[in-house]
Write a structure and sequence with these properties.
Blueprint lengths: L27 E10 L2 E10 L6 E7 L7 H12 L3 E5 L14 H7 L6 H17 L2 E11 L1 H12 L3 E7 L26 E6 L7 H13 L4 E6 L16 H17 L7
Parallel strand pairs: 3-4, 3-5, 5-6, 6-7, 7-8
Antiparallel strand pairs: 1-2, 2-4
Helix pairs in contact: 3-4
Length: about 270
């Protein structure tokens, strides 16, 4: 489990959440597993409802920059309570652990930049295949990602034609390109094969509103099935209840919008 050693990992300094939320596990089954992918065994966390162990809609939960820590695990548990099989893979596992870095800048330069997008997208394909063999319904495949994972959620919606829908929480939309990251969401708007909901904060200094507008223009030009919501009072990581950035009203609205977005595809629990 990723420890809270990085800047921004302090519990939310608000009256709404003084400690990270923790979802009870009475009605779900949750735990660690490993998933075979590209010749390796990838660690992952999964959660599912107790009363339905097969033919479950699947949600790939794509980690923040900090990896699969307790907040990401709890998001899996929350989705399990909604009737989903939720799986959060450790997508940096070949390159290293976020625990080994003392601040965000060195984490980004020492680890995150070394993780190729192509590797991540292929790993997510293997996670989807694992889910289909372990109680999931391959015809009801969904994805959601946060921060670093928000960007990946956009890319995955252009990568896997079997994906039914994706929701990207404050994922970067544009930026410098590299061999490991040759394209950003604004570059693949025309390639989206699944509808994507983007959730952003107007006060996010790392994702300026002009880049959000540029993405909207790209989506319109591509006639893509996508929608972007901008919360006027929220900044980056407004759903991260363990951080000072947490904005309860926006987080709750975004969560319900995500569930509704998934429901539009018919990829909801059969129960």
């Amino acid at each position: 489990m990723t420890t809270n050693t990085l800047p921004g990992y302090a519990p939310a300094a608000s009256p709404h959440s003084s400690t990270p939320l923790h979802t009870p596990v009475d009605a779900i089954i949750a735990g660690e597993t490993t998933i075979p992918t590209q010749g390796d065994s990838m660690p992952a966390y999964h959660a599912r409802p107790k009363n339905a162990l097969s033919s479950l809609p699947v949600v790939l939960v794509i980690q923040e920059i900090f990896g699969v820590h307790e907040h990401i695990r709890d998001l899996c548990r929350r989705l399990a309570l909604e009737g989903y099989l939720a799986v959060a893979p450790e997508l940096y596992f070949r390159q290293g652990s976020p625990d080994d870095y003392a601040d965000i800048q060195t984490l980004y330069e020492g680890l995150v930049m070394k993780v190729p997008d192509a590797q991540v997208l292929a790993d997510l394909d293997h996670v989807a295949n694992w889910a289909a063999r372990n109680g999931g319904d391959a015809q009801r495949l969904l994805a959601t990602g946060f921060c670093w994972g928000g960007r990946i959620a956009w890319l995955y919606a252009a990568h896997n034609p079997q994906l039914k829908a994706a929701v990207a929480w404050y994922g970067k939309l544009s930026g410098q390109k590299s061999l490991n990251s040759p394209k950003h969401p604004v570059d693949i708007a025309v390639d989206l094969s699944a509808p994507v909901l983007g959730l952003y904060g107007a006060r996010d200094t790392g994702i300026p509103l002009d880049t959000v507008d540029t993405m909207r223009q790209a989506l319109r030009a591509a006639n893509a099935r996508a929608e972007i919501i901008v919360y006027p009072d929220a900044g980056h990581a407004f759903n991260a209840d363990y951080r000072p950035s947490y904005h309860e009203e926006s987080a709750k609205d975004g969560w319900q919008r995500m569930l509704d977005w998934f429901a539009r595809t018919g990829a909801t629990s059969a129960n």
